[in-house]
Amino acid sequence: MGKTYKIACIPGDGIGIEVIAASIKVLAVLQPLFDFKFEYTDLPWSSEYYRKNGRYMPPLPEALATLRKHDAIFFGAVGDPDIPDHISLWELLLPIRQGLQLGSNVRPSKIFKGVKPPLAGCEVGDLDWLILRENCEGEYCGQGGRSHTGTPYALGTELAVFTRFGIERHMRYAFELARQRPRKLLTLVTKSNAMRHGMVLWDETFYDVAKDYPDVKWDKMLVDAVTIRMVLKPKSMDVILCTNLHGDILSDLAAALSGSIGIAPSANVDPERKAPGLFEPVHGAAFDIMGKGIANPIATFWSAAEMLRWLGEAKAADGLMSAIEHVLEHGPITGDLGGKANTEQVTQAVISALKQ
Ligand code: GGG
């Protein structure tokens, strides 16, 4: 008899609800095939919940205590056309990431067979990256303020906070993941020429940590220069280690270069495994297509595969990835990848591939 895992499920908003529902169908087929069981707790924390209760989730200590009773969190998306994005994000996703100290956000990108990337000459194998985005600090720490509001002198500050603890924890995890990959390459990304405090702390911490991983080959680049390298020399990179803000931006670029943000997954984890990981597609609620049934569910399927790997169910993760790869190569595919299929058709195709 296989293991049973407790999964907190937060579909959230917009297409998050649609792609999580599609993933639950796929995971229902996967469980007996690979002899494991998921017990879901459905948590309705969302913009709808906010409209009814004046908050996106219960008070933070209570919400975190609920999440901690689970082995993993499966998250869809947050965002609502009628609610400012900084409210929705700061009421739900960021407090969970920070409250559980999910210090690393792992965002893989690769070119799959059958997916046409936007760059001419870029083929399968040319782009296979793991973006390691620091996930609790930097410009997203929530520190700052406003004054002179409503006057011509209105101002706002957004403080970036970097701690040796947070940086080192994240860097060690990046090196651990880099040494498990065939090429064992790591690129440190900062802006330590212009930002002379926190970013220099990143550099100094990096030099210390790198000494413990002599088997990993590394280089470092400024974030502006790395965008050029990602476009012109994608094969020269493997693991990309970066700050919260830089990783947020670079992972969208990576998703676009690999074909579509509709296939980009992410894993928010505490490298020390003291909290359940949170697994979610990189994309948001996508107001433009929500409710139409045409969202690409592949990013969420791939996030589910990352969740299974994190839980120790490697065979199930590999099985799901093979089914995803089969569908990306042979279709059907959604509009963002140049196809005409809807969410349900892609879901059923992945289920059929699993059963083969
Ligand atoms: N599925 C992820 C989601 O809803 N993302 C919304 C968003 O804006 N996230 C910003 C971030 O990842 O920091």
Automatic annotation (TrEMBL):
Protein name, per record: D-malate dehydrogenase (decarboxylating)
Repeat found in the keyword field: no
Coiled coil: none
NCBIfam families assigned to the protein according to its UniProt record, in alphabetical order: TTC
Family: Belongs to the isocitrate and isopropylmalate dehydrogenases family.
Annotated GO MF terms: D-malate dehydrogenase (decarboxylating) (NAD+) activity; magnesium ion binding; NAD binding
Pfam families per UniProt: Iso_dh
Keywords, comma-separated and alphabetical: Magnesium, Manganese, Metal-binding, NAD, Oxidoreductase
Assigned EC number: 1.1.1.83
Domain Isopropylmalate dehydrogenase-like: 6-350
Co-factor requirement: Mg(2+); Mn(2+)
PANTHER family: D-MALATE DEHYDROGENASE [DECARBOXYLATING]
Reaction it catalyzes: (R)-malate + NAD(+) = pyruvate + CO2 + NADH
Organism: Calocera viscosa (strain TUFC12733)
